[in-house]
Amino acid sequence: MGWLTKILKGSSYKGHSNRKYGHDRTWDKPRDSVEEDVEFAKALSLSELDQKGKSVIEDESESEDDEQFAKVESDSDEQPTRFQSDDDEKPAKVQSDDDEKPAKFQYEEDEQSAKVQLEEDEQLARALQESLNMNSPPRYDNGSIIQPFPFFMPAGYSRICAGCKLEIGHGRYLSCLGAVWHPECFRCRACNLPITDYEYSMSGNHPYHKSCYKEQHHPRCDVCKNFIPTNSAGLIEYRAHPFWLQKYCPSHERDRTPRCCSCERMEPRDTRYLLLDDGRKLCLECLDSAIMDTHECQPLYLEIQDFYEGLNMKVKQQVPMLLVERQALNEAMEGEKNGHHHMPETRGLCLSEEQTVTTILRRPKIGAGYRMIDMVTEPHRLIRRCEVTAILVLYGLPRLLTGSILAHEMMHAWLRLNGYPNLSPEVEEGICQVLAHMWLDAEMYSTSSGDVASSSTSSSSSSSSSSASSKKGKRSDFEKKLGDFFKHQIESDSSTAYGEGFRIGNKAVLKYDLRRTLDHIRLTGSFPV
Predict the structure, then answer these.
(1) What is the C-alpha to C-alpha distance for residues 180 and 165, in angstroms, rounded to an integer?
(2) Dihedral sign, Cα of residue 393, residue 395, residue 400, residue 401
(3) What are the pLDDT digits (tens) for 111-162?
């Protein structure tokens, strides 16, 4: 069985055997296959058999030095026997006679035992060979996943292709994903073409060409439509709008890519947008419901008044409402000593001082290059007749955004006209944002202005609703989404006055209702807890 140890070392065994063959040659040739290992094992076993046979014969023909050594040894062994009694000599002679018989048949018994052992060794070699052939073939690192040579297939064993479920013969095949495949059956999930590259990508349990995987799964920029590049660390880095989930390259925040002043989305390349006189950009979807002049905004203003009246918060004084450009709004804010304006970008203002304000009298037209032209403005002198002189709103915004700004500024007017003391920004801006959010809720989930009122609303409000703006009607899916975005802006505002103030005020209104919350503010100047 000494040869079995060598065959278990495999075809990479390169040591020298300690056993010698004719002319004292040592076997040192590396074997290239299992078959050579088996042949070598058989030859080695036979040589061991020859050695066993020769050992008996060669014992009788030892060299003269060995015979001389044996004689000396025999003489030394005989000396002690001279002092033995006659009784001891007799068993010694009998024992010598008994040893001769086994020696005569030793060669025949060794030959028969060697034959039996050889048959057992050959059976074990065949079993070992079949075991080695049953293993999966090695994967070659030669730039291809296709096996370069067919492997020996033992009788009764067959490989089944994981793709077509047919038997794989002795041709080339692939071994990957824990299965074997015909080369033409291992295909890309995207393009359905065979994958012959050494590297491929996985998504779920499906293989892809690396190029196909990138095409389907690598994020593209929503602005330039290119693959979003990786950063210096090899990671995909992009910016994403928290509401619209628009993904774009970080570089577009610095390359003056236009962003809509209403929905805040970046405009994709080769997409038209409207450029307003004050430098703002307006996407065409927001333009569809945008309010452009003071006259066009009057019906919406009446709706906001009806909304307040439905909440038993009617504004009794007639407060002028003007649609203005950004420059006029900024100038009015500078001239207001104690005004309240919609931050962080000034888009609305509740005035309490006498001023002259430039208002937009007629809707501008869209000229070449999608620029606003032929805007008609006129100065309007504001006279102080009460605590509030006017409400100003930035022009060019969609109807829902314009309405929420009006609802916010109207609450400033209501607080001033109803004798509320000077409140902290967190309380006053917070409760104004609560009313803007309530109006958006009412607009998004009602079909008529009569539905925005509470259960205590009088039926007289329906007469004013008939003069609703022409912008109001069946809303598009985008306008509904836009309304959700404006609500999201109010809810997620990070500022202390507008954001945190809204969240505290809204929690109080939900807990105690609007009227009791306002009464608590009048008495304490703070929200109830």
Answers:
(1) 10
(2) negative
(3) 676 676 777 666 665 654 554 444 433 444 444 444 444 445 555 567 889 8
